[in-house]
Amino acid sequence: MSENKAVGIIGIGTYVPEKIMTNKDLESIVETSDEWIVDRTGIRERRIIAPDMATSDLASRAAQKALEDAGVTADEIDLIIVATATPDMSFPSTACLVQANIKATHAAAFDLAAGCSGFVYAMVTGSQFIKAGLYKKILVIGAESLSTILDWTDRNTCVLFGDGAGAAVLAETTPGYGILASQLGADGIGGDLLKLPAGGSRNPATAETVAQRMHFVHMSGNEVFKFAVKIMGEAAIKALKAAGLSAADVDCLIPHQANIRIIQSAAKRLKLPMDKVMVNVNKYGNTSAASIPIALEEAVHGGKIKQGDIVVLVGFGAGLTWASAVIKWGKEANTNC
Ligand code: UT7
Asked: Is the dihedral of CA 105, 58, 331, 291 positive or negative?
């Protein structure tokens, strides 16, 4: 086993549903305004999944694009990890459904639950299998259909979220490149701040749980906001330190796209100008575990990230959880391995 194997992202792809819901559209659903939503969150529109689709469909499409981008075929994939809070169903896992959809016949598959931090958790988890020499190519996916678990009568939550998926292929990469360091964290004491109370073993589905709207997202927005503002900068700095770097070395920050004010405060804490920060919360809202790979893909394919750049991914979410990773960007797979 080599602890020193460099593991990086060798391909990335995304899929977002076609249907756009604007803030104006929301004005006719709940008592809100475009002005309030833009001012408090930075969100202008979000994507909504088609009624005949589910999370595994979004995930499979993103996965196929990531495979194409990496120049890898589905049967080369050894493991699929899907980070999601909105699986198609409790079981089978969404990762198994994706495995069947994309015909990744040799891949093991499992889901990972870490809220909006899920993609970074999945990437760090997946990379360990490659470092350990167990697997060579791994698909990590963040995919969500948040619109299916939103209470469309609750203006505190329904304006914030959107649907989408982002996928990345991990492989051994050129030494010195790839994931340089990471930091995963959790504070389960804060679990009540952001949850879907029913549908699990604690509150199995009954007519009463449905009537009480317990199958929708419940969130203490202000508390989550305070936690996010504190943890985003801290988590990024810890990972940078572990990589032997400082905030001054960062070429591009990919923060979880929850709220422009949270993103700005993280940038301020790191003393980063906003032109080094990827922002697309305006177009997609908060897509939970999908937000970081969707933002990363746009930054990579939009030319905001170049070979050799130091890229920091940082997110927070239900759990409570947080996750950060420092990547030296270099898309080449190490063909010697
Ligand atoms: O991925 C992790 C997921 N969660 C998050 O990232 C959420 C983090 N939290 C936030 O982003 C912010 O706390 C929110 C955007 C959710 C709320 O912003 P805020 O500045 O903390 O507003 P607030 O909750 O303090 O509400 C201020 C006012 C309230 O009215 P009153 O009590 O002052 O009369 C709310 O009822 O704004 C009202 N309000 C709205 N008004 C119009 C809340 N939601 C809306 C709305 N439209 N959609």
From this structure: negative
> Does the pTM of the predicted model rise above 0.85?
yes
Whether 158 is catalytic is: no
Secondary structure of residue 311 in the 3-state scheme: strand
pLDDT tens-digit readout, 122-166? 999 999 999 999 999 999 999 999 999 999 999 999 999 999 999
Distance 286 CA to ligand 1 centre (A): 14
Q: What is the pLDDT of residue 4?
A: 81
197: cis peptide before it, omega within 30°?
Answer: no
The residue annotated as part of the active site, out of 23, 96, 252, 286, is 286
Distance of CA 166 to the CA centre of its chain: 7
Cα–Cα distance between 114 and 81 in angstroms, integer?
Answer: 12
Q: Delineate the domains of the chain, giving CATH numbers in brackets.
A: 7-176 (3.40.47.10), 179-328 (3.40.47.10)
pLDDT reading at 53 higher than 90: yes
Is the C-beta atom of 323 inside 6 A of ligand 1?
no
For the chain, the distance separating the N- and C-terminal CA atoms, rounded to the nearest angstrom, is 13
Active site residue 337: no
In short, whether 223's Cβ falls inside 6 Å of ligand 1 is: no
Cα-only R_g, the chain: 19
